[in-house]
Amino acid sequence: MKIEPSEICKVLSVETRVKIIELFKARGPLGAQDIAATIGITTAAVSQHLKILKQAGLVRSERKGYWIPYSIDEKAMEHCRHILNEVCTCGCQGIGKFREAELERSTVASLKKYEEELKNELRTVRQRLEEVESKKG
Q1: 67: left (phi over 0), alpha (psi -120 to 50) or beta
Q2: 89-to-48, 53, 84, 92, 98 alpha-carbon distances in Å
Q3: What is the tens place of the pLDDT at every residue in 46-73?
Q4: 15 versus 75: which is more confidently predicted?
């Protein structure tokens, strides 16, 4: 499913949907009731958000008896990252690099903040990698 950048932005402009995706990243597949209990909204509201995320192709589900676990569609999220990197105007080219002009006008404080953001992102990537490897092993 091909999704337009404007549609991705619309779908992800709702904080609750971003929280749901972050929850999947942290905990893996979850049912609507678990999501509702964790983020503090009704199951009906979660279902509506999941429907929109699923229509956008960012989330998938597979019925297992009475339980329907939802999870991130990794391929769709990678496509989403690619699209957002293309429309990004910060000059990072999607790989975390500053342009030379930005480096020249950066302060020590802004570079230290950027360094912390990169460290946090690296921790998240390493954690996700461990989760994926442990599921395979």
Answers
A1: beta
A2: 32, 25, 10, 8, 11
A3: 999 999 999 888 899 988 888 889 998 8
A4: 15
First to last CA, the chain: 30
Q: Which of 96, 58, 102, 91 minimizes the C-alpha distance to 77? A: 58
Residue with tokens 């953001």: 117
DSSP 8-state class, residue 61 = E
Q: How many CB atoms lie within 10 A of CB 59?
A: 23
Q: Residue 102: which pLDDT band, with cuts at 50, 70 and 90?
A: low
SS3 state at 70: strand
Amino acid found at 76: A
